[in-house]
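Reopening this one. Same input as before:
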Amino acid sequence: MKIKAFTIALCIFLSAFNSNAQQANFNGTGTAPDFTLSDMNGDTHHLYSYLDSGKTVVLKLMSVFCGACGMHAAPTENVWNNLGPNGLDEIMVLGLEINANSDSSDCSNYINTHNLTHPLINNVSSLSLGYSVSYTPTYYVVYPDYSYTPVCYSSCNNSTGPTTIENTLTNLVNSWSPPVTDLIISEYAEGSSYNKYIELYNGTAYDIDLFDYEIWKITNGGSWPEQTLSLNGILESGETYVIAHNSANSTITNSADLISGICSFNGDDAIGLAKFDGNNFILIDAIGEDGPDPGTGWDIDSISNATKDHTLIRAFDICNPETDWSISENQWEILPINDFNNIGVHSGCLNTLPVVYGCTNPIANNYDSLSTSDDGSCIIPSVNINFPYNGYSSSQSNINVDYDVSNFRVGYPGPYINGHIHYTIDGVMTMQYDTSSITLTNLSYGIHTFIIELVDTNHSSFVPAIADTLYFEILANISGCTDPLAFNYNAQATNDDGSCFFVNPSNHVINTVGMFFDPDTLYVTVGDTVTFNISNYHNAVEIDSATYILNGTNSNGGFNFGVGTFDWVVPQAQTYYYICQPHAIMGMKGIIIANMPFTSVLGCTDPAADNYDASATQDDGSCTYSVALGCTDATASNYDP
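Same output, byte for byte:
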């Protein structure tokens, strides 16, 4: 009967709401809360009654004043028309008006404006009903097993949208498979010669122990069972188990999990699957039936003797076993004889375990062994080195290591995971039972590796390891100038020995003039720059004092300049000797006398002062006198009595 858009009949009010504490949420966990709704004509809408009848229910939580809800009205109505009572009759659609400000008149206007024929419920509290809402409209597709999938603007895996909502809802309705209760016979082959096999399929969400199952057979009519075959092994969820004749061709035997003579059957031999119920094995699925011999075979879907000289594949939407042949005879796809292309695989119903959100990390304090999907809530133990930092260097042979331990009890039990500390320095491990600083002593020069790790009460590492690693270097104890601004800064020095000095460099020039250096004797200060201008046929080569005296030409490894202009910075205080090698015998040589920079010494430079400092080179105004100095002439204008 066509449903008319009578306003009074469709504006339904809530007469009884959520009777349990279950809350439908955007993760789709748990079961949908039940409710009973009554319309103004006295008709009731009980959610679980629809579900128990095998229907899927689409709930639309909305507001009649919501523009987006109006845009979703037509697509939702299309789903109702296609899949509801006037279509495939698979679903019920219920609109839930959750705006407390709407009344029956508003509800009627919405229905008439959008030509709706599916029920609309007014004055609903989503909180009382037990359904979360993320903007309007928010949808829930509720399945016959009370599970559900949310569809919302945000926060859901499936989102709303007026151009996509019809396909989204249709796909979600069609995606549901009935709960699989047990194994089924998924394929059967009665081929030529001994090309015969039986295939079982596990569409449940769990792995099943085949020890509780048997294959039964009746030959040429009779009663269950005339012959039985015990099974063993674990059949995993979504997998098949093939039992074949030992003389079948290699395509069959290569796919077989078990070889058995029970597969010596013909088209008129009934094959059954039985399960142990705690006391006896009970038939749960069958091809054919007990009773009189059917002759050549059983008919399937108007195909005579279909169980002979055919391969049979269970329809993809058949989820559960069936012993009533009058029902199951229409559940098979019939393939030609010796068609074994689908052996070992089955595209059928497959249940999955419900998603359980929680912490899935075994080393977390709040690890939940029942969780199947991590929700990011894990409280993970950690250890972190604060000092020294990675790449740290020191000339000290002792180092204190400071660190933090979080979400872990060291040395004693408590609310967190507990255990101990293991630390290693260059591979040598030490145990520690508290969180005090760790002192590393007598460290040798070089690079060291330090690892600190949290372990359990049995001193075993966690997986993955909870650890932190530090690399640092102990430097050799080298004295020298450690001030980078000093002229004699030593980057390798670790201890400052007070030798630093600072220069105010000057520039000097030495030219070659004929067979002479001009000047041939030069006084400089360490840090000064000497520029050599060397003309053709000359050079300037540093030599030692003995070679200089003998007018020799052998270099001592110091500066060595050819023709051109060269700058040389005086490195240290000493006398430098150099020659022109081609003309050394003619006395073309020179001397550079280098002194340390003059450093001002501040102090009192007046010998008459009480605090005269003979080493001071610059008076700093600090002189003091025990005898007052001044003018003693009483007639003078500046007389100082």
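So the earlier flakiness isn't reproducible anymore. For the record, The CA atoms of residues 99 and 352 lie 37 Å apart.
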